[in-house]
Design brief:
binds copper (II) ion, five-stranded mixed β-sheet, Immunoglobulin-like, globular, mainly beta, single chain, four-stranded mixed β-sheet
Length: about 100
């Protein structure tokens, strides 16, 4: 779904992410270090794989759009920028019990 993402980018450019920050979460024992998190629109969240297995994070927005961050080997870091307000579900497509919720405001 390319169009919603383009619209989201346009919205961010217009909204000006004045409080953008770099945040991080780690993954160990196939669990995210935080289950619930609130960020500001424009913030970038880094996921650090501290496990001995590969993860594959997918971020699902309230609009149903899903971003697959790709395979993440042990020691690897992937990141995601929250470009629109709303609730996001973060899951690992390899380990379904890995879940976290992020609210961008
Ligand atoms: Cu995983």
């Amino acid at each position: 779904m390319k169009l919603p993402r383009l619209l989201a980018l346009a919205a961010v450019a217009y909204a000006v992410p004045a409080m953008a920050a770099d945040l991080s979460v780690s993954q160990s024992n196939q669990t995210f270090s935080t289950a619930v998190m609130t960020v500001h629109v424009g913030d970038k969240l880094a996921f650090h794989n501290a496990d001995t297995v590969t993860h594959n994070i997918t971020v699902k927005g309230a609009d149903g759009d899903a971003d697959d961050l790709g395979l993440q080997k042990p020691g690897g870091v992937v990141s995601y920028k929250f470009e629109t307000k709303g609730a996001y579900r973060v899951v690992c497509s390899i380990h379904p019990r890995m879940k976290m919720m992020v609210t961008a405001e």
